[in-house]
Amino acid sequence: MSKAKMRASYRCSECGWETAKWVGRCGECQAWGSVAEAAAATLRTSAAPVSTPAVPIGQVSAEESGFRTSGVPELDRVLGGGLVPGAAILLAGEPGVGKSTLLLEVAAQTARHRHRTLYVTGEESASQVRMRADRTGSVQDELFLAAETDLGAVLTHIEQVRPTLLVVDSIQTIGASGLEGVPGGVTQVKEVAAALIRVAKTRNITTVIVGHVTKDGSIAGPRVLEHLVDVVLHFEGDRNSRFRMVRAMKNRFGPVDEVGCFDLSADGIEAVVDPTGLFVEHHERAVPGTCVAVSMEGRRPLLAEVQALVTSSPLERPRRTTSGLDASRVHLVLAVLQQHCRIHFHSSDVFASTVGGARLTEPATDLALAVALASASRGTAPPRGVVAMGEIGLAGELRRVRDLPQRLAEAARLGFRVAVVPSNGAPKTADGPIDGMAVLDVPDVASALTLLRLNRAEA
Question: Where is the RecA family profile domain (predicted)?
């Protein structure tokens, strides 16, 4: 028999961090006043009967865990092939980004293929979900809807409906009766998640759980929630844009470097197979202060236009404004251009942004940013049909970028004919040069600007 010895401990109500003595500030999430006393048990467990005997791994059947399409190809790409029976998936994102709309579409597509689906909503009433389903065309006979906030009632619905796919929106609204804390607290979230995952594993039910995020973008609740589930997905997007991206942060069944692109509108959510056109402006003539970069979103190359504006400043401290770019990388590129290319920005306001709300944080986009800044400062447009990629070091050198063949192939597919890349970029492509594209390798940023006729020294 098991014996439990009670001891005093203190637990953070924000992240679940535990300590033996009380402290005013959590040592994990650094929150003040969130540590309170909680009873903990130290268990000593003896041997017990097993549910199923251990067998050689070669004798374990893998057929029951095969992929099944979700009906949304972009989501299947992120998951590594589709939904896996018994898998627990956590989908997190900011309010209003479209999590419920995406999952309602997945539930409807699953029900359309004659797989019974149960959608449990704790944030909306059943009639509200039905209104959205009518608007997006998601009403299906095999799609069952329940509005519940009690864990026991949710488990009863699962027992009665026996679904193939379970969607819980969201775990912060479901509470377990008889357990301390309010729904959304550390104890409640851990217990509710453990119960749902236990049912998912024993009944081979694919379970998708919606999670809230904090103001800094991390998943709310205890970190153990991310350890319990099999897949962690982040749903990202700018409220001023219809473009949305699903990114895998953890995936036990596939790669974690894949993203899916979607278009969110009043009629629902649709997959965007080729998102590059959303971030590249088509100019009729060459325009100063512009350059196209090629970044990697997961394993997908994505072309995005970088724009820059440099004007004389009346201020003692000129402005540095960025949108869609990492401000620290912009400052680094400005310093390198001033030190190694004799392009002075100390008396100028500098504005740098991307087109279409794209977010470029990869260092490989440094060279495109440098070209745009130099072009804006000189008032000279770079040649048309040019893409630039390369990370800039503090000494002005260009460092190699990963997945160069895939980037070049995507740029060539979209009609670009010249690519400026680092000279140590290894083979240009896997099978040889790309037809119709000139690949120009340069050792440093000064050579790249000289090649594009943007590095004339000031008098």
Answer: 64-213
